[in-house]
Amino acid sequence: MVSAEKNHDVWMGFALAEARGALVTEDVPIGAVVIGPDGAVLGSGRNQREELGDPTAHAEVVAIREAAARLRELSMADGGSGDGWRLADCTLVVTLEPCAMCAGAIVLARIPRVVFGAWDEKAGAAGSVFDVLRERRLNHWVEVYAGVREAECGGLLRDFFLEHRTRI
Ligand SMILES: [Zn+2]
Question: Which of 5, 18, 51, 60 is catalytic?
């Protein structure tokens, strides 16, 4: 049996690949994937704020939208009701600690588990500045695994900002 930690490392590899894809459009390199109950990737996303000119196009939101659409498709193909918005039993894996908006979206999607790489001391909402994912006053609590492949996730961001600062 493969340990959960081993899975987290592998899944973070998918999120890191997404993050690198954001570099093509000069977007801050953040990537995310939603893993289904069977371990398959249901949705993936990268930060597309610059590419789309959309302040809400964060990696997590993009991945959640794709996963929900996929689940809906699978449910309809099964003769089901087409309910796809509830990402029960899924795991969201992201290279950077989610911000308040994304943590809110994770709660609304009822995702039970989040795995993230680097901490975001300035805007993180999974323990750094806020802890929306484990806010006792909300009706949905999320299990959080932090610091998975943290050096790689953080390094990607550090390199990006270093390069941008020298160019300005
Ligand atoms: Zn966000």
Answer: 60
